[in-house]
Amino acid sequence: MVIYMGPMGLYQSNNSILEKLNPITKLLYIITVIALSIIIPAPQMNLACLLASVTLLIIGRVFWRLIPFIGINITVLISIIVIQGLFMAGNKTLWFQIGSLRFYQEGLCYALNLCLRVFNILCAFAILLLTTKPSDLIESLVEKGLSPKLGYLLCAVLLIIPQLVAAMERVMDSQRSRGLETEGNMAVRIKAYLPLIVPVVLSSLINIKEQSMALEVRGFSSDLKKIFLNQQFSPFYEILIQIGLLTTITLALLRRLFLWLS
């Protein structure tokens, strides 16, 4: 699954209701959506979860920012539909034919359900990534017992692409001020981008060294109990939401177990 990240990252503050929710609640929602798509793989369940996620994205005023994600992944999903519709092993019922290409009902239904599941998971992750600061997410996980070193690693992974893009833009601006030609045909652009690789890589390595030194000065590797500057508290309604999500997963598991035993 391809994810697009803008120069400033995925998160942009808009003071919405979703933004004010605890990151743990949104992470639990993702787990619930993925669990339901696995436990109950019916298209109706995937469609219900997708509609719920789209509704939340609209409420959070970030649905329009989901469009680039869908545009990047649409080519892969179309290829899945074509390949499964033509060549899936269980294809029997001919649905329609375009020239010599025969599309079968079983393959197309399976591919459409798979695409629905991909959109479902993509929208669920968008709820978290578009409305949550990476630092708030990692801080919440560390408060719940996640290792600070692992939390820093996850935060670095979430921010590495925006940081590299920002570094590339800074180097390009400095090179343009020195007269470097960066616009034109493809050959001119490639020729302009190649000299930028070394400065960007070197600046990234320097930033890593400075960050590691700053963390060590602040006692990052200390075994003492950490104190959080911004402690996050879940209000009563969020606790009810979390209980409801966990109950939904439990009921789905019990239903699947009951069907398996009967």
Short description:
By secondary structure, the chain is mainly alpha-helical. Helices cover 70% and strands 3% of the residues. The chain folds into two domains: 17-132 and 231-261, no CATH class; 140-217, no CATH class.
What does the model show?
The protein has a two-stranded antiparallel ribbon. Mean pLDDT is 80; it is low at 1-8. The chain has nine helices and two strands, in the order ααααββααααα. The radius of gyration is 23 Å and the shape is flat. 70% of the residues lie in helices and 3% in strands. The chain has 262 residues and is mostly helical. It folds into two domains: 17-132 and 231-261, no CATH class; 140-217, no CATH class.
Strand order of the largest sheet: 1-2
Class from helix and strand fractions: mainly alpha
Distance between the termini: 37 Å
Number of strands: 2
List the helices and strands and how they pair.
Elements: H1 17-20, H2 23-39, H3 43-59, H4 67-87, E1 94-98, E2 101-104, H5 105-131, H6 134-143, H7 148-177, H8 186-217, H9 236-261
Antiparallel strand pairs: 1-2
Helix pairs in contact: 2-5, 2-9, 3-5, 4-5, 6-7, 7-8
List keywords for this structure.
single chain, 262 residues, two-stranded antiparallel ribbon, 9 helices, 3% strand, disordered N terminus
